[in-house]
Amino acid sequence: MQTLARPVQWFLYRVARAASELFYQRGIRAIGVDGVVAAAGVAKVSLYRAFPSKDDLITAYLEEQDAHFWKGWDEAIASSRSAKPPLQVIIDHLIKGLLAPEYRGCPFANFTAEFAEADHPGHAVVRRSKEELRSRITGLCQATAMDKPDDVANALTLMLEGAFALSQSATGGQKGAATALRAAAAFVLGR
User: Fold this and answer.
1) d(C-alpha 162, C-alpha 53), whole Å
2) Which fold has domain 1-52?
3) Where exactly does CATH 1.10.10.60 map onto the chain?
């Protein structure tokens, strides 16, 4: 006997996948619910049963982006066969992400640029993710036993955020951002 869990999971996966691709590549405000419905191949009424509003769908998109980012982070550290410290492994991992052909900037920065309304539920996801970034960078700096790990973490976090933003500008684009991040991290870390 088949349960409803599998069809519901498949439905949610299709909607989430379509929304994620469209929102990230084209912008959240540029894509209406009809666009997500068409790309996912689902009925609008079904989408609204799962996500009562576009804001709910946007928040789910941001939560998925957050989970994806941290999964990649954790996998980069776990799968590293290098003698490099975990902090350098993460910097290399993020630079690799910056250089990916499909990279279109930080999805959280993109969301924030589109939604200035502080009460949008997506901002809670963004804040949580950015706090987690700062916390993890701080932890890696402390584990490296460097002088002033909190100051170094602040500098690295600022550099990462800057690289995410710079990657989408005309000033060198993705390659320029990756090169700048690599040089700045080496300077800050004294390597």
Assistant:
1) 32
2) Arc Repressor Mutant, subunit A (1.10.10)
3) 1-52
